[in-house]
Amino acid sequence: MSENEVLTETNATPEPENANLSKGGKFVAALKEHARKFAVKLKRRPMNIAFFVLFISTAVYLLLLGSISQAGLEYAKTGVPIAIFVNTLFGILVLLLFMYSFPKRSKKPKIVMLVFTFVFMAVMIAMDILLYVQWNKAWAEALEILNASQKAEREKYIYNALNGVLAHAVLVAVSAVLTATYPLYGKLIAKINTRKTLEENVIKEEIDTSEEV
Is 61 in contact with 169 (CB distance < 8 Å)? Predict the structure, then answer.
């Protein structure tokens, strides 16, 4: 009597991750991985959402600065020139203040810098309101004396300026709210599952035994 035992191993060598996926599947998997890493970063620093909105507010203001400056020259009511200057300067400085308020290696914000950040935000919102009110009054007065061609020429920048300061004020206000409430929505973001599941390579052993008499 003789006994033969055959040991067979399958999946002994692990295949590369996503090796069996199509190009579309690999693209979707890459997007999911990018979203997972982004969520991990937000878990660590949820205040980055507020910073992003604040950055957008400054970008919008600077992009429309040409129209805002033109409106300031044409309708230089009381406080308009200084309001434009303050918003331009504070829009850049507030980004630096925000970054110094939340150091990367510190879990707690710097209170003094954070207070200055809120003060700068409040000043910018006040300047935007001043510009919006003054330009609305000036434009209403101008409509009574301007002819059709003059109105068409000035409409190109006055409406951009009005919409620009209004959008800037709203975005800064939203950023202020997000900055003040980041501990609350940070807890919600922390509940997002960002664990990466890995497929295990299982080694199967099959033992075949046969007997011969």
Answer: no
pLDDT digits (tens, 9 = 90+) for 44-58: 778 889 999 999 999
Rounded to two decimals, the pTM is: 0.73
Higher pLDDT, 170 or 34: 170
Neighbouring residues of 123: CB distance < 8 A, sequence distance ≥ 6: 86, 90
Measured CA to CA, the distance from residue 170 to residue 102 in angstroms comes to 23
Report domain extents, the chain.
23-190
Say how many Å lie between the first and final Cα of the chain, rounded. 5
Element (H, E) at 46: none
State the DSSP H helix or E strand holding residue 5, giving kind and residue range, or none if neither: strand 2-10
Q: How far apart are CA 162 and CA 181, in angstroms?
A: 29
Nearest to 54 by CA among 104, 102, 112: 102
Give pLDDT, residue 8.
43
